């Protein structure tokens, strides 16, 4: 019998819930993709480059114009003047960048600290690199990191910490004191950081995204991962990038060249144009999504759900304790099959399932979809 390298993995919860949503013709607030389209300029420029014949391999690290625009964006947002040639690599989505960064860092027997609830690609990538995930659980309602608990799981085998801010699925953002605590651990234990910042431009109520790129000392030990798919409503293009110090980026590129070699060439040119010609899209992203968060939140005020704070991302957590006694997986199945709304249970984001009665909904949807979903949920 064939022996699997990942024997405990099956179909992801996102695929399962989307399939159920399609089967029951439900409103799909489960999988995290926008219901609306990418910007017109981006689509127009993609089409132009395809028709012009810009359809062959790009340089493995990315076309120069896009690397330059990424560096300019980082300088504008985080006041860090990086070397685009040595420190930026364009990837086929943020998940590829996460995978490559983990393979570059993790060796047999290494331990990597992961905060649950966590994006589901972290642990498989760590295991494929020969490492072991050390899970630190965060819980409702605040999902605050207890840095003393993190210090207690440190060992001589600890190689890295993966942070995710703004955080999927909780919507929590790390603050300056979190970064200070992280820096202290990195220094004390000679650690590296993989900073998953794919929702970096989506923060609410005037809050500032604190990137690993804003701190010189922390960035010296970090891989910072970003997503064009999240920023430009184009998740199906699978375009992202990694930024790291030159020494780390050398190792990153060694692996990247044998994973995808290079990424979708016409899209790289179109994305460079978008960053250069319409910078207001990035700058307006927080307000755009805050409108949708507030629209859904206000529409749910008369429901029996308790809404947990969403400081960033395009996700909102709902505590359903007053609605049902079912566990969260059973409740999500009931919700899509009987009520016609698809959501995601929080327990699947944990290594050791949480007993919190919390589900995640995505508000990257058209306003009418959000209002129709809220109307149904208010009737429960």
UniProtKB/TrEMBL annotation:
GO terms for molecular function: transaminase activity. Coiled coil: none annotated. Keywords: Aminotransferase, Pyridoxal phosphate, Transferase. Gene3D superfamilies: Aspartate Aminotransferase, domain 1, Type I PLP-dependent aspartate aminotransferase-like (Major domain). Residues 27-375 form the Aminotransferase class I/classII large domain. The keyword Isomerase does not apply. Its cofactor is pyridoxal 5'-phosphate. This is Methionine aminotransferase. It comes from Pseudoalteromonas lipolytica.
